[in-house]
Amino acid sequence: MTRRKRVVGLDLGTSKVATVVGEADEFGNINIIGVGEAPTEGLRRGVVVNIEKTVGSITAAAQAAERMAGVRFDSVVVSLAGPHLSSQNSRGVIAVSRDSHEIGPDDVERVVDASRAVSVPSDREVVHVIPRTFTVDGQDGVKEAMGMTGTRLEVETHIVTGAQTSIQNVIKCVHQAGFDVDDVVGQGLASGLAVLSSNEMELGVCLIDIGAGTTDVVVFSEGSGLHLAVLAVGGNHVTSDIAIGLRTTLTEAETLKLNYGHTLAEVIPGEERIEVREVGGERVQEVPRRFLAEIIGPRVREIFQMAREEVRKSGYDGLLPAGVVVTGGGARLLGTIDAAQGVFDSSVRLGLPAGFGGLSDRVSGPSFATAVGLVRWGAQLGAAPGNGRHNGNGHGHGNGNGNLTTAYSKTVRWLRDFF
Ligand SMILES: Nc1ncnc2c1ncn2[C@@H]1O[C@H](COP(=O)(O)OP(=O)(O)OP(=O)(O)O)[C@@H](O)[C@H]1O
Ligand SMILES: [Mg+2]
């Protein structure tokens, strides 16, 4: 009989909370059985600024998902965002403990732990320690250290840290909404799990998730993340540029962006005009649609330039054969892929959640990338503790990249002690 594990992803976005309920079988295949969404007003640039409003949104989105799924759940994998997240790479080294020199799960855990001994300021907390590759007695590039024989075990890890208070506020909101937290996951890492193939992650790829208040940038290579940054800009900034440029309200600016927005002025015929309602007034002015693109284009290109700067910082600029994958609600803006191609000298594609069964059509848009990625993350959690290579069966899209989730949920354990 197939055993199924139920996992709930809760993406706490700046514009919406998205809750996705999935069921995973032992091969890592995931069926989506419920989806709920609710607008949020309690976050700014990915960070909770109003607990009460955020709790209300979580409750609404969770109830909607429970109704659709016809099941109740009591724990979730929740996303983390905000420019306070940052990453660094670290190394750990230990002597293998057994007399037989066979590397066991405890050795793997110990060496990963040793790599955590980086200096983290007291107001920051380690969110993820992701083992990238092991070295056994000088032999590097080892993906599966467990079971090998050696005396000296080394690991290279990717460490993501965030501001303690911001992380605590996310956990607090989820708890107040009545749910336990299985894990907290950087939004970009989750989105990557939803929209990237394991091949892309192996070759080297930059994932860009343009949300409402933030843009997540994660560089992946050799199967796992190696650089993560959260830019404090997103689709909301495009909207406010339009509001300022056309002297209209944010609501009107958002509508104009959704209906007529484009990043490339040169593809809009000069005679096309749009109607814009001025602030506080009845007056409607007609402006060329090109105007709108002339406002949008520079901002979107700026976001991609900032993202490319992060790729440069990672040391992988020009070294990402799988190019760039853009997702998040902001990626729906017409011309976004062209804008990215103009900034990155590489191939660019739109990233949509892929490889899910069940009600997958309900989560096929780019704004669901994080939420469904959280489900995949949760499905892999604890699947093969100790080695960071979970369910490496290669089935389906995005599988076989399980070493992303070997955070051992230590953050969660640590945070549980707090509340
Ligand atoms: N068709 C569209 N054209 C242009 N922009 C769009 C479209 N649909 C959504 N957006 C923009 O996408 C953004 C919302 O994306 P998303 O739902 O991914 O954000 P979020 O996850 O709530 O925010 P964040 O990730 O920053 O916390 C908004 O700025 C919205 O204007
Ligand atoms: Mg988002």
Q: Can you tell me about this structure?
A:
By secondary structure, the chain is of the alpha/beta class. The protein has three domains: 1-85 and 163-196 and 352-414, ATPase, nucleotide binding domain (Nucleotidyltransferase, domain 5); 86-162, Dna Ligase, domain 1; 197-350, Nucleotidyltransferase, domain 5 (2-Layer Sandwich), CATH 3.30.420.40. The chain contains eleven helices and 19 strands. The protein has helices spanning 51-69, 105-115, 164-176, 187-195, 198-203, 235-245, 250-260, 289-314, 336-343, 369-380, 410-416, and strands at residues 5-12, 16-24, 30-39, 43-44, 47-48, 75-80, 86-95, 124-136, 139-142, 152-163, 180-186, 205-210, 215-221, 224-231, 273-277, 284-288, 324-327, 348-350, 356-358. Strand 8 and strand 9 (139-142) form a beta hairpin. Helix 6 (235-245) packs antiparallel against helix 8. The chain starts with a strand and ends with a helix. Residues 13, 187, 209, 211, 328, 370 line the site of magnesium ion.
CATH class of the largest domain: Alpha Beta
Backbone shape: globular
Q: What is the subunit arrangement here?
A: single chain
CATH architecture classification name of the largest domain: 2-Layer Sandwich
Q: What's the mean pLDDT score?
A: 90
Give me the side-by-side strand order of the main sheet: 11-6-1-2-3-19
The rounded distance between the terminal residues' Cα atoms is 38 Å
How do the SSEs run, as a string of H and E?
EEEEEHEEHEEEHEHHEEEHHEEHEHEEHH
Pick out the low-confidence regions.
Answer: 384-419
Structural class: alpha/beta
Beta fraction of the residues? 25-35%
User: How many whole angstroms does the radius of gyration measure?
Assistant: 22 Å
